[in-house]
Amino acid sequence: MKIATWNVNSIKVRLDHVLDWLNRHHPTVLCLQELKCEATNFPLEAIMAAGYHALVAGQKAYNGVALLSQSPGVDPVVGIPGFEDSQQRVIAATFGEVRVISVYCPNGESLTSEKYSYKLRWFAAFRDYLEATLSRYPQLVVAGDYNVAPEDRDVYDPVAWKGEVLCSDPERQAFDALLALGLKDSFRLFEQADQTYSWWHYRVNAFKRNMGLRIDHILASDALVQSCQSCVIDKTPRALERPSDHAPVFAEFSESSSPSS
DNA sequence: ATGTCTCCTAAGAGGAGA
Questions:
Q1: Closest nt by CA–C1' to A115
Q2: What does each of the 261 residues of chain A score in pLDDT, given as a tens digit?
Q3: DSSP character for A31?
Q4: Are strands A199-200 and A249-253 parallel, antiparallel or unpaired?
Q5: Which residues, other chains included, contact A204 with Cβ-Cβ below 8 Å and sequence gap of 6+?
Q6: Are the C-beta atoms of A178 and A129 separated by less than 8 Å?
Q7: How far is residue A66's CA from residue A73's CA, in Å, rounded to a whole number?
Q8: Which of A38, A57, A112, A229 maximizes the CB count within 10 A of its CB?
Q9: In the structure, how far is the CA atom of residue A110 from the C1' atom of nucleotide B10, in angstroms?
Q10: Of the listed A52, A104, A116, A129, which one is catalytic?
């Protein structure tokens, strides 16, 4: 089972990149973020023609998440139940034995912004949602754009970024609080090259200079960790014409060792 | 290095968001 995540920064603009990537890598589930379109405008026919089902939570212009999958998802849930939010950031469904959540965490803008306090409130609600989800679905994967670089080694210039949004202590603590529920950052289960990032600013030639941050993550519950075979960031699509500012991340899980039933 | 990309409104460029 291969589970991937990709912030596409507009599914309309990035459709060809996504179709090409599906065709190349055949993920079991691809979690998308920043669709930037309403569900009715989602390019469902093209996705289905590529052999994928889609569950979509969209809105006009901003945010928006989806789950693309080879088999239809079961028991979909949109948003964080009990947390009023007009922004479409979360969608969950079950694939086989595994619950998968596609998530687009708030950016926060800056430490003094109202968006930053919203980000921290949102993370607290998301933590509670994951706690409840884990008790019902021990085999859980939470994949998406977290807008948090968890450690200094996830930042190209940690001195310059110290305390800045995406790297501040409260954000890192909010991220660590998710891990404390019994989730692991699958990327760190394996040896990785230094200075591997998932996001590079569009400006200043940041990608070519590898001025990046690792803010896109695939968290796996403790019940799934032993079956995780790999976690890789694919920088290839970031080098294409008209790229998203994010690269896809994907993790592979073996099917065998599920202790269910 | 107020730089880049994508969306919106609204009929031009400018603002929001990232």
A1: B17
A2: 999 999 999 999 999 999 999 999 999 999 999 999 999 999 999 999 999 999 999 999 999 999 999 999 999 999 999 999 999 999 999 999 999 999 999 999 999 999 999 999 999 999 999 999 999 999 999 999 999 999 999 999 999 999 999 999 999 999 999 999 999 999 999 999 999 999 999 999 999 999 999 999 999 999 999 999 999 999 999 999 999 999 999 999 998 645 544
A3: E
A4: unpaired
A5: A211
A6: no
A7: 11
A8: A57
A9: 30
A10: A104
For tokens 């093209």, the residue is A46
* Residues paired with residue A92 on neighbouring β-strands, in sequence order: A77, A101
Query: What does A42-53 look like in DSSP terms, one character per residue?
Result: S-HHHHHHTT-E
Instruction: Residue A219: name the closest of A234, A231, A233 by CA.
Output: A231
Contact, A204 CB vs strand B, < 7 Å: yes
**Residue A145 annotated to the active site:** yes
Residue linked to tokens 């800045």? A164
Q: Tell me how far CA of residue A21 lies from CA of A26, A192, A218, A224, A255, in angstroms.
A: 8, 22, 18, 25, 23
